[in-house]
């Protein structure tokens, strides 16, 4: 029993140390990706009254919503119910009214909303971790209203045959264990293009310079659902 206690405590300290060290190294990444996020959220129309964010987590994107439309109604979806209190705090800090933010536990593969119910869907660094990218994109299309937009920012697999792609493939199992199911080798760009967004897709690419270099290739952009006339 004593040995089991020591092992559990050791694992706890290792996780805490890893978390501290990883966050310290990641700061340059968060600083650099800020520019990409600004470009993505600048595409969020002021006419978007109801927005769904998949994988909202603790709410790091809250300030982008409040800065563009203080009356926007945001629904945050996340599989971890413990994120509710953190996302609410982030919403309040960003200036979103309590009545304008709701949290739902759920996953992108089965969005708990009716068809054609939101003006925009947002996913930033989320499609790398969902269990089924194709099903998630199908659900996004389903809940978007005609004229709606899907806004995304993701890290993706490097070019086939490149040294970076080979390293990603090698490190992918470790990445999934350490980063909550995050995949390094997903061809998310191709999955979005193949999803059949009726209004077309606009994708930009970006190569991150900051740590972690293994996730250097990024994409960001918009996918539209055609209006009904």
Characterize this entry briefly.
It is built from six helices and seven strands, in the order αβαβαββαβααββ. Helix 2 (62-68) runs parallel beside helix 3. It has 229 residues and is α/β, with parallel strands linked by helices.
Helices and strands, with pairings:
Elements lengths: L1 H40 L8 E5 L7 H7 L4 E6 L4 H12 L6 E5 L12 E7 L8 H11 E12 L7 H16 L9 H7 L6 E7 L9 E8 L5
Parallel strand pairs: 1-2, 1-4, 2-3, 4-5
Antiparallel strand pairs: 5-7, 6-7
Describe the structure using short key phrases.
229 residues, alpha/beta, Rossmann fold, 41% helix, globular, SAM-dependent_MTases_sf, Methyltransf_11, S-adenosylmethionine-dependent methyltransferase activity, Thiol_S-MT, Methyltransferase type 11 domain-containing protein
What do you see in this structure?
- There is one protein chain.
- The chain is of the alpha/beta class.
- The chain has one domain: Vaccinia Virus protein VP39 (Rossmann fold, 3-Layer(aba) Sandwich).
- It is built from six helices and seven strands, in the order αβαβαββαβααββ.
- The protein has helices at residues 2-41, 62-68, 83-94, 133-143, 163-178, 188-194, and strands at residues 50-54, 73-78, 101-105, 118-124, 144-155, 201-207, 217-224.
- Strands 3-2-1-4-5-7-6 form a seven-stranded mixed sheet, sandwiched between helices.
- Helix 3 (83-94) links the parallel strand 2 (73-78) and strand 3.
């Amino acid at each position: 029993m004593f040995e089991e206690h020591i092992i559990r405590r050791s694992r706890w300290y290792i996780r805490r140390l890893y978390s501290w060290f990883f966050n310290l190294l990641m700061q340059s990444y968060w600083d650099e990706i800020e520019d990409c996020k600004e470009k993505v959220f600048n595409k969020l129309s002021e006419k978007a009254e109801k927005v769904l964010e998949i994988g909202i987590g603790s709410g790091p994107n809250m300030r982008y919503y409040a800065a563009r439309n203080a009356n926007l109604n945001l629904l945050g979806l996340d599989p971890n119910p413990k994120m509710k209190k953190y996302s609410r705090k982030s919403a309040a800090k960003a200036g979103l009214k309590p009545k304008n933010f709701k949290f739902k536990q759920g996953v992108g593969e089965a969005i708990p909303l009716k068809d054609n119910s939101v003006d925009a869907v947002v996913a930033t660094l989320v499609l790398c971790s969902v269990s089924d990218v194709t099903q998630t994109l199908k659900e996004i299309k389903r809940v978007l209203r005609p004229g709606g937009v899907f806004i995304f920012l993701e890290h993706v697999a490097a070019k086939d045959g490149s040294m970076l792609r080979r390293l990603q493939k090698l490190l992918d199992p470790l990445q999934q264990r350490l980063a909550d199911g995050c995949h390094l080798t997903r061809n998310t760009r191709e999955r979005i293009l193949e999803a059949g967004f009726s209004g077309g897709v606009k994708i930009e690419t970006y190569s991150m310079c900051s740590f972690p270099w293994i996730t250097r290739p990024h994409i960001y952009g918009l996918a539209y659902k055609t209006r009904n006339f």
